[in-house]
Amino acid sequence: MEVWIDQDLCTGDGICAQYAPEVFELDIDGLAYVKSADDELLQEPGATTPVPLTLLTDVRDSAKECPGDCIHVRRISDKVEIYGPDAE
Ligand code: SF4
Question: Where is the 4Fe-4S ferredoxin-type domain (predicted)?
Answer without folding.
Answer: 1-29
